[in-house]
Amino acid sequence: MIRPLRALVLLAASASLVHAQRRRSLPLDSGAVGDIARLLLLEDVRRFDSLELSSALQSKHPEVRRRAMLAVARINDKRGVALLRARPLDADTALAATMVFAVGQLRDTLTIAWFDSLLSNPRTAPTVATEAACALGKIKTAAARAVLARYLTNVTAGPRTRDAIGEALLAIGRSTARGDIAPIVKWTSSPDEEIRWRATWAIFRPRDPAAVGDLLRLSDDRSGHVRSWAVRGLVKSQADSASVGERAEAKLLAALRDTDRRVRSEAIRALGSYSDSLALTALTNGLSSADSWISVSAAEGLGRSRLSSVVPALVAATDATRPCALRATAIRQLQPFANAEARTAASALARDTVPYCQNLAAQILRDTANAGRGGAGGGRGRQPQQLVERPMSEYRAIVERWIVPSYNGKPLPRARMRTVRGDIELELYAGDAPLAMHAMTRILDGGNIVGSEFSRVVPDFVDQEATIRDAAVQRDEVNRHRLTRGNLAWASAGLDTGRPGYTLNHTPQPHNEGDFTSLGRVIRGQDVVDRIELGDRILGLQIITNTAK
């Protein structure tokens, strides 16, 4: 006998499947391809054409309607809110969720009440409620936080609400306003690890001293992921404000022996905010670790102290026997308060076998020389990227190559990235980010990715490739794929400002939700991602399956 709750879930899943089958049963004919190509053009040049967008939103073809919603979100014009809200939510839950996602991307405070109505209604489809929660986290105001807090207080955990609860926890953690943490803390006792780490992140993220007691408790959680977020919040300023500075430091020192690498890395990073002898000794010992996440974080922590007593340890970390990443980090940390020592170490680093470190040494030597002369004058900032309309035939080709196969349910394309640490296999969201996919294939055809270096590696955060030669500024295509561990994106200083190099996440990045394009995810080789070090090179990247076939 099927229990009522399970039957409800099965019914919802069946209904969703029927909607998906119905949507895909309508083929993308030449007319629909042309409509989507025109929408892609509007996205590409960020042109808000209310007549064309309105017409596409009323199309008889569900995929054209869905693409129109995404186009409005990506064009990012507040007039799009009225355009999207002109019609009721579609009966197809995938389209309804996309509509809510699109409105959320526009970050209009006047939509808070609407999101509230969706989130608080138990009859709202789970995917729609989840997108409503995510949208409130993009608005970030006190009013949006209040809606999320009320939801988290009143909602009952269950299969239908699990995803929305998880997203609401991340959303409330993104709020710029502080408030009562009790609605979050209740979820730190959930038996579900996925819920617990999100709740821990949500109380850590605002840096509220009121959360320190709970973070101390959660630093003993059975999940390493939970513990890593908990110890990250035990920095000195917050712990002292909560009058538990000594307890927090003791917890961090103990966490250096944790079995989980993430916890050890976050503990050594948090210890960098303490400057007493116990912390400095632990950081100095961390410089000797064979794990670059530990040694690099230790060097950064010592550098932040700006104490003359740490100079010998940082100088020793620049020795030629030490890895490039540690040498470079130690020199950078010495620069602000021990310029002469940094310059001497940079001269030695220029003879390192890693090309990245050789180039970095030359840059440091220029910087230290300019510092002695008062600087060499300001350079030009990044110039605005001119929006260029491509031929319509190119947009149609992008739609036919990447969007049509995805719509038809073909397997997602994959790519293999070869690095000096091993191979990384990626699944690519080609249909959800077709312009980015088109740009990637051009980069691969040009061969400019071969030999490019990882120029930024932040332990337990991200590996970032240096900007690829001749790569153009990329149009962002923010989509409903979250910024998870193993996510593939590219570096950016804001929407539509990034030029690939690509980035690979060590950990989820909820604070960046809505601001970066998710182009794909690691499906094999995450251990390689976690071993990448500063200056490591990409030996090759090639598409190994293609939806066009």
What does this protein look like?
The chain has 549 residues and is of the alpha+beta class. Among the domains are: 4-97; 303-370, no CATH class; 398-545, Cyclophilin. The protein is 53% helix and 8% strand. The chain contains 26 helices and 8 strands. The protein has helices at residues 4-24, 30-45, 50-57, 62-75, 80-85, 93-105, 112-120, 126-139, 142-154, 162-173, 182-185, 193-204, 212-218, 224-232, 236-241, 245-255, 261-271, 277-286, 292-305, 311-316, 324-334, 339-349, 355-372, 392-407, 434-446, 526-531; strands spanning 414-419, 422-428, 454-458, 462-465, 487-490, 502-505, 520-524, 538-545. Strands 3-4-6-5-7-2-1-8 form an 8-stranded antiparallel beta sheet. A hairpin with a 2-residue loop joins strand 1 and strand 2 (422-428). Helix 4 (62-75) runs parallel beside helix 6 (93-105). It is globular. Mean pLDDT is 92; it is low at 1-22 and 374-384.
